Structure formats: C-alpha cells, structure tokens
Amino acid sequence: MSILVFTLILLAGAFVAGFLGSLTGLRGGVVIIPLLTLIFHVDIRYAIGASLISVIATSSGAAAAYVKEGISNIRIGMFLEIATTIGAVVGAIVAVYAPTQLIAVLFGIILLISAALSLQKRQEKMVNMPNAKIAALLRLNSSYPDQTGKEIKYTVAHVPGGFLMMMVAGIISGLLGIGSGALKVIAMDNIMKLPFKVSTTTSNFMIGVTAAASAGVYLGRGYIDPGLSMPVVLGVLIGAFVGSKVLVKAQTKSLRILFAVVITFLAIQMIYNGISGTL
Amino acid sequence: MSLKRKIHDQDMESIMGSLLRVGVLVSATVVLTGGILYLFQHGASQPHYKTFKGEPSDLKGVKQIIIGVTEFHSRAVIQFGLLILIATPVARIIFSVVGFLLERDYLYVIIALIVLGVIGFSLFSGFAG
After folding, report:
1. Where along chain B do its domains lie?
2. The whole model's pTM is what?
3. Number of Cβ pairs closer than 8 Å across A and B?
C-alpha cells in the first residue's frame, strides 16, 4: 500500500470517527487509536501522537461553537486546568517509559469504562450550597440562562474531590492521548454537581488545554508524525463539522448503543493484543 | 458588581470563540497545504509506521520545524500546521490572563499563569527530549 492510498483510507476512517464522535458526544480520540493500531498496524506511540492532535482539533473546533452560547464557566475551567495540565504532563512522561503493552491494556480498560458511561443516563444533581467555603473563595459559583432567558444560579460542591478527579483525568489523557471527557464529566456532574449545560461546555474547553499540555512532551519525544497526523486531523475535523450540522436528536440513542458496542469490541481487541504482545 | 463581571466574562468568551475558530482554520489550511505537497513528493513510497523509530530531530522542535518550513519541506509544513493547532488552546490561556487582568481578578490571573507555566514546562523542559 502506497502512502497515497494509506492517507486516503485513513482520511475516510478519521472522517467517520469524527462524524460519529460529534453525533454521540464521544470524542474521536477514542476510536482513532484502535483504528490505527488494530487495522493499520501503526505502532501505538505514533497512534497516541496523532490521536492527541485530533483531540485538540475537535475540542477547539467545538469550543468555538459552544462559547457563543455563553454557558461555560471559565473560572471553573481555568481552576481545574491546573489539575488536568499537571496530570497530563505527568501522564505523558510516564507514557514515555511505560511498556506499550501496558498502555494498550490500560487503553482497553478506559474504552470499556467510556462505553459503559456512554450508555448511562446522566443525572443532573444540582445542589444549593452557597456557604461552601472553597467554591466561594474561588468565585466558582455562577449562573446560566435557561431556554426562556431566566438566569439559573448554581453552586459548586466538593471542589477538592473534583480537583483530584480532574488530575486523574489529566494523567489518563496524557498517558493515552485521549481527551478523557468521560472522566471529566464524572468529576463535574457527580462530584461537583454542576448543571449539564455548564459541565459539557466547560469540560470540552478543558480538553484542548489538557491535550496541549501533553502534546509538548509527545512532540519532543518524536511521537507526532506529520504524515500520519495530517489525514487524521483533517478527517476528524471535517467529520465533526459535518456531524454538528446533521445532529439529529431522535437517533442519537440507537447510535450511542451502536457506538458503545463497537467500542466494547475494540476494547477487548486492544486488551487481547496488549496481553499477547501483538501490537 | 457581579452583573458587570458576567458581561466581561461573556465578552471574553466570544472573543475566545473567534480566536479558536481562526486558529483551527489556519492550522487546517497549513496542514492541508503541506499534506498535498507531501503526497506529491512521497505519495508513491511505502508508509513505515509499524515499528516506532521516533521523528527525526528536525521535526521535534519549534525552531527546527520553522527552518524546515522556510526550506519548503512538506513534512515540516504539516508539522508547523500542527504546532498552530497546539498553540490555539495556549493562546486562549494567554488571552485569559489579559482578560482577568482587565477585570482586576488577580486570583485568576495567577491561576491562569500557573496553567500557562505547566504547558510551558511541557513544551520547553528537558522532558520534551
């Protein structure tokens, strides 16, 4: 297979990944690595580099659309980015020294968790804790407009717990070259009790910054290959853009289930190949 | 006071949105240009991703990549486009520092600077090879 054919097939594959990613809310990074390693037999280190780049692309692309709605909380995002970026750098440095087989297995496990979480119904658990000290000190409590334009106030719970969970999300992101959006959502929905509208947009905002933090390490280590990243980034970007234009609410549920099944299958493959050492 | 801060925040966010959009578009254009060049130059050869060798040193550092771009190396042009992409979220943080300064929110100036410092460490420290 020549580079031309390889590039075109990869472009198509990345397009599908970006398209499905934007329809289901599961980011492309989750499918890019299995696509590259299992189907194209790319070394997992190159795959992680390319995936990380695509994560930045989709995050910045989607954030550009989200910010107009003005519901992300930049203070929460900025504060938690301390945790995610430190985690991301640590994760990326560990990845350099960790055996690739271990990374493949860990990736498979994270895929399984993401698949399970994507099927779960997210529950909004807003609480009213205006007296929580840390949140008040950091001025994290805020409000957002609902459909009718009414301002809905919300408070932020368990800031230290959320911060720790974000650090874990950062480490996973840096280690595996994914956005770890699923873990960020756990931190914001379940621990910090943020409203959906705020947690979704804020976590998306953070994903790009987190990925940029580990990208520096990966670039310096030679994981980011231009010939491989080019079709992946362009494909995912175009796919995500088209996906955002055809977003059909009614079909997302069956799509989610289909995507979860595919991801579970890929996860098992990754774990199997990791253990048998064929990656 | 709280209403005023809110308005400032929203101004900041809408400028950030445009910043990100422009960054992604510019990056994609550069990557595409380099990609077309790359396919013309190397399209007929074989891909070599099965074993990890790591990139050559002229594709690993900001300075070397820029030198490669001035010499029209297709892989360096793509890499430069990827650098722009990595820079978009970083630009957002820098912009936030300025925004928080204008809002006189010094606590968040410091927080944004910490985040910037961590990313700078990743890009320029010895760990980056």
Report:
1. 2-128
2. 0.89
3. 211
